[in-house]
């Protein structure tokens, strides 16, 4: 079986533009926020109406929230090639070398690198503006591309 990607395959590839990627990010972030609120509803409710108290409660659960985000992105990108936001934005993630779905490990690496990008002032996302393949930090680390579905 030949896994080599032909130059014709590369030419037919349409990289996702920035707006669908931003739309997907917003949809996924809203969805994860909603899931987080459902999971930690009792703790959030007990914090009262003060936003500082709510943030303090959520900071206690920072690691479980990060694990939720990593699990969400890992599973959906690995299994479907797209998160809910990417699906609704009609984009998907593929392996840079084979142009097919990415492995579980690559998906996990991409999800962890995405969290790191967020933690460091979203600098990892800015990488996409400065390379021809529009790869973010997490795409470069996981050797992936985001393309139109």
What do these coordinates show?
By secondary structure, the chain is mostly helical. The protein has one domain. It is 63% helix and 7% strand. The chain has helices spanning 7-12, 18-39, 41-46, 51-60, 62-80, 84-88, 104-119, 123-126, 137-142; strands spanning 91-95, 144-148. A two-stranded antiparallel ribbon has the order 1-2. Helix 5 (62-80) crosses helix 7 (104-119). The two termini are 25 Å apart. The model has no long low-confidence stretch (mean pLDDT 93).
Uncertain ranges: none
Distance between the termini: 25 Å
- Radius of gyration based on Cα positions: 17 Å
Adjacency order of strands in the biggest sheet = 1-2
Q: What share of the residues does DSSP label as strand, in percent? A: 5-15%
Concise structural overview:
The protein has 149 residues and is mainly alpha-helical.
